[in-house]
Amino acid sequence: MRMRKKKHGAERIEACAHLLITPNEEIKADLQSAFVEKRPIHLEIGCGKGNFAVGMAAQHHDVNFIAMEKIADVACLALEKAERAKDERCDNLRFIIGDAKNLVEYFPEHSIDCIYLNFSDPWPKAGHAKRRLTYHTFLEIYKTLLKEGGLLRLKTDNEGLFDFSLEEFEAFGLKFEFVTRDLHNSEMNEGNVMTEYEKNFSDKGQPIYSAHVRF
Fold this sequence. Notes:
215 residues, alpha/beta, Rossmann fold, 7-stranded mixed beta sheet
């Protein structure tokens, strides 16, 4: 379902511009320059309305978080959510409005400690496999961006995408650190911050699949 265009969306985004990263040469040279303090950097690709990013930034003041969303009207809601929650975090959250296919243009090599893929589009048709964010060409990009030993954390409600992802991870030679087909009944559920989709699926009894792999 296409999201209805937000009224005054551009102005609302501009009002939160202090939370936005605009990719440029300075950022490409030093990603930490986007933040007040230097901390490990975690990146969420496809942040939706921002529940996860805002919640994680509030829980983990020792980490700088970047939340990326390609749809500006969705990013608008995430930015406003982050602004409302500014007292719960320590100025450790920034946003990029952009597409995952351009990641290498946005970030320096080996500058990110952890990448989150939360409820990414499963692209269920076989002919669309290359568009899945766990396809091996995307894993190559993540390998370029992550520091040595960096972590990729996946959550999805789609079993087909999960099985596909596990196969891609194994073929790519990644080290599995955690795999479950029922995240909310696993040991990793403590401290788990749910996305909007995750809460909706969980409320309907849908199991959440998750895997953590290290590069």
